[in-house]
Structure formats: C-alpha cells, structure tokens
Amino acid sequence: MLGVLRGVHGKIVLSIGAVFMNGMMASTLQCFVYRHHVLLKPGSKLRFSKGRYIRFALYHYLSPTIWFLCGSLTAPLEAGPDSEILRKTIREDSSLAYMASLNSFYIMDRRALYPPYLEVSSGMLMATAILAVIVYGVIVTGLIVWHCFALLNDQHSLMSTRTKQIHRRFLHVLLIGVTIPIATMGLPYIGVLIMVLIRIRFPQWLTNLLVGTQAAHTTLTSFVLLSATPSYRRYIIGMVSGFFGRPPQRDKSRHARLSIVVPARSEYGFE
After folding, report:
1. Is this model's pTM higher than 0.70 or not?
2. Which PANTHER family match (predicted)?
C-alpha cells in the first residue's frame, strides 16, 4: 500500500478510508431500502418498524467498518528507504529500485498477523472485507431494485399511473447516480484486490487508468445524469440560469420540475 502522505501514520489514513468507504456503501444501500419500503403496501410482511430500520442501518454501518478497521489497525507498516520490507522487495524485483530514493510512503508487510492462530495478513483481511461488501451489496441491491419495479408493474396496485411514473423516474435517476460512481470507484478497488490476493503487478498505464477513473467518478456521474435524464438536465439548467440572474424556463407543472428531486407522496404515504 503506497502513496500515503509523509508525516502521517499509514494506519490512520487506512482507517479513515475504511470508515468513509463503508459509510458510502451503506448509505447507498439505505437509499434503495427506503425507496422499497415506501412502495410496499401497508400490510406487507416486508415492511419494518422504525426500531428495526435503525437496527438494520447500524448493523450495515458498523459490521463491515469493524472488519475494515481490524485489517487497517493491525497492518504492520514500515516507512522510509531503510525499511527491511522495502529492501526485500527490491531484491525480489530490481525494477522497483527507484523506491529506495523515496521517503514519502509506507509499505505493508504480508506477514501473518498472529501465527499460528491467524495465518492471514492484514492486507488479506482488508481485501476480503472489501470483496464481501461488494458481493453482498450488489446482490441485495439487485433484489431490492427488481422488487421495486415488480411493485410498480403490479396491475392490482392502488397507486395511480402518474405516481408510478414518478417513482420509476426517481428509481432510474437513483440507479444512474449510484451505479456510475460505484463502478468508477469500484474498478480501482477491484484492481487492488487482484494485486493483493493474486500478488501480480499491473502495467503502469493500467494503474494510471484505474486511478484516473476513480478520481473522475463525480465528473462522469454528472455527465451521465445530464445526458440520460431530461428532467435532471432541466433542473440543473434552471439552477445555473438562476445563478446568473436569468429566470429558469418553467415547465407547465411545478410538480414535474421537482419530482426528480423530491418524489411525490404515494397513496400509501411516507412513514
């Protein structure tokens, strides 16, 4: 694990990154869970009380975070060109000799954490945590999205056609706003997982591409949203026009302009 700022302990940076990364994943899942809850009928067995919702959120926020922290806080890190791990790495691969002239990095050892009781390294522990969260999140979110659209296609639903259209529009924007950043941030993490688990090196151009994709995830998300969602595009144009003192172009219905940001109440109502 390289690229840590000089003068800052690597474990602190890894721990902060673990908390933020899992927080973003859990909050994303929470958005879909709440949207699914809104679409359910009042007597559905899938509906949950406020207490169950809070327990569900805490479990998904805390469990993977603790898993990540166990890996990052136990990471045996060494810094500087005189570290034993770096000298061993250079002996194994002479193309990394330039690292001996660098001071602003930390390098993680692959030694087992607590042999013979725990024969895995801290890097492996963090890699398995990331992999588990990705697999779990993709499966659960996919099932929730599928059931949301199944509820909207139900002919016996009490929701009006207009309300269904508003919910579909909101789900489409939510999918775009979540899928693009997760994909653009997830690909670099998958690359790191491959390097950690299989112990292979990527070409420099591929590493640069992964890092660049991760850095541009917000720009790519905004571009796709503006290109694929006319309502969101009109909303942003209205905001920009208002910023420069020009009155935004109004739709025939004020509700149509706001529905992309604040979905209308369904006949079931919000709880």
Report:
1. no
2. SERPENTINE RECEPTOR (PTHR22941), SERPENTINE RECEPTOR, CLASS H (PTHR22941:SF26)
